[in-house]
Amino acid sequence: MPPMTRAMKRTSKLHSLEDIFELMESFTDEGGRIAFSYTSFSFIDIDFNCYVGRISERKRDLTLHDANDHLQHISDEYVYPGPPPNFTPALECIDDCWIKRPSLLCCEDVKEFGQIPKLLQTKIAAMETLSVSPHPNIAKYHGCIVKRGRVVGIVLDKYATTLEDRVLESSRPFDKDLCLDQVKSAIDHIHSLGLAHNDINPNNIMLDDTDTAFLIDFGCCCPVGESFLGFGTPGWMEEQSDYNSSKQSHDLSAFSKLQEWIENPTKDPYPEEFV
Questions:
Q1: What pTM, to 2 d.p., does this model score?
Q2: How many Cβ atoms from other residues are within 10 Å of residue 54's Cβ?
C-alpha cells in the first residue's frame, strides 16, 4: 500500500458508492483453488485529491459507511508528475471529454508507489507524439490538466463503449471486419512512428455511436526497445517474451488474439462463487 497513515487529514468523502473511481477484488491461488483475498477501491474528489481503501469483504458487500471509514489520503507527489516541457495544456471547457486519471490500485504491482507518476508521464509523452501525427482511430488528445503544479489528468475524447461490451451486445449488427481493419490501421500508424502500444486488448479499444473504433490507454506506449513501467493484460500478452521492453511484436501478437476473440468473445472476470 502507499505511504500514508489513518491519521492523515481527509478533506473529502464519498457521497455515493457511484463516486468510487476504481473497485477491484484480489484473489490468491491456494493449491489450484482460487480464493478471495480483499477488495480495494479508490476515490478522486473534485479537486483531484486522491484516496484509497481496502476491506476484507467482497465488493458486493461494500457499504458507503465502510468505504468512507477506510479511505486514506495519498499525497500528490506519490500520484501526479510535474508538467513536462512543452506539454499541451487542456482548455477550460472539457465537460464533454474524458479525463484520464492515474490508476491508484496499481501501487501493489510496482516496487515503489512513487513510480505511479512515471506511468502518467509515459501516457503524456505518447499522446503528445501522437497529437503531432494524429490518426482517425486513435483517441483524440486535448492536453493535460494541471493543479497544484502537477499534471492531474489527461483530457481525451469520450466514447460510447468498449469493444468488449459492444461485441457481447447482440441486440444489433456489428461489422467485425471493419472494426479489425480500423484497429490494425491504428497499430500500423503507431509502429510507423517507431512506437509500440504494448497493451492491445478489447477494453483498450473504444467505439463511438457509429461503431468507429478508437485505440486508447497509452500507459505502456513508448519507443521500440525502451523499457516501460506498465503491465500487459493477462491473456493478451505475447507468450515467451520480455514484457518490460517495448516491442511491436507485442501488438501483433495481441492483434492476432483479438482476431480469434472477436469470433468467439468471452468475458472472464473472477466468478462470484470464488470464496
A1: 0.84
A2: 17
